[in-house]
Design goal:
Largest sheet: 7 strands, mixed
Number of domains: 1
Number of helices: 8
Number of strands: 9
CATH topology: Glutaredoxin
Order of helices and strands: EEHHHEEEHEHHEHEEH
Shape: globular
Strand order of the largest sheet: 4-3-7-6-5-8-9
CATH superfamily: Glutaredoxin
Radius of gyration: 17 Å
Helix content: 25-40%
CATH architecture: 3-Layer(aba) Sandwich
Length: 225
């Protein structure tokens, strides 16, 4: 049985996460260049959805630029031996991501002393060149998929400001290497343990994006300290 919790965001109306996700399949404008079927069959997108690692394996050691200070990249390995790392993959154009951001921010506020948290801003889920959603346009989100770091960072900045995101944000490069290794598109959650291994790998979004599962994984890791 699926327990459907009513959620909203600062820009999205309040309704269940399940309804938000299901609504996407019937909210495609006629001028959308792609449909859900097109997205599911696209080999490039399939690569971004499919992880190249699994729970218990060594995590892919990336180095990504911070949104608030691009000159200071963050390496995953810098936390090895120090603290677990929660990774939150997503983008502004994904409605289920927006309505779950408050729950993820709550985890950050609760556990940030013992766990490093990073939102990793990745390729847009619903750009104007792809599968367009009427829901996004209804709330003033009409974004062309960025082709440079600067463009992606600008969109990420808009997301952070409008959604009032507290999480530290890293920006995936235009080659989408980190999203591809982690299968982070369109949204996904991870927890990396102190040894640099995958302690928790959430299922593919939107339905596999479950902050409550991440919370339980964090509590298990912290209990081992």
């Amino acid at each position: 049985m699926i327990r459907s919790v009513s959620r909203g965001s600062v820009i999205d109306r309040r309704q269940s996460f399940l309804r938000t996700a299901l609504e996407m399949t019937s909210g495609t404008p006629e001028d959308s260049p792609m449909t859900l079927s097109d997205v599911m069959s696209d080999p490039g997108i399939r690569d971004l959805r499919t992880p190249n690692l699994a729970a218990g394996e060594a995590a892919y050691n990336f180095a990504l630029r911070r949104l608030d200070d691009p000159q200071q990249p963050v390496r995953l390995s810098q936390f090895t031996g120090a603290k677990p790392v929660a990774l939150v993959f997503g983008s502004y154009t994904c409605p289920p991501f927006r309505v779950q951001l408050d729950a993820v921010d709550g985890l950050y506020r609760r556990y940030s002393e013992g766990v490093a948290f990073f939102m990793i801003y990745i390729r847009e889920a619903h750009p104007e060149e792809g599968w367009v959603l009427k829901r996004n346009r209804d709330v003033g989100i009409s974004i062309h998929d960025p082709t440079s770091f600067e463009q992606r960072a600008a969109v990420a900045s808009s997301c952070v400001a409008r959604m009032r995101v507290a999480l530290p944000v890293l920006v995936d490069e235009p080659d989408n290497a980190v999203a591809r290794h982690y299968g982070g598109w369109p949204i996904r959650l991870y927890l990396i343990d102190r040894d640099g291994r995958v302690a928790y790998q959430g299922d593919e979004g939107p339905f596999g994006f479950k902050p409550a599962q991440l919370r339980r994984a964090i509590e298990v890791q912290l209990s081992r300290s």
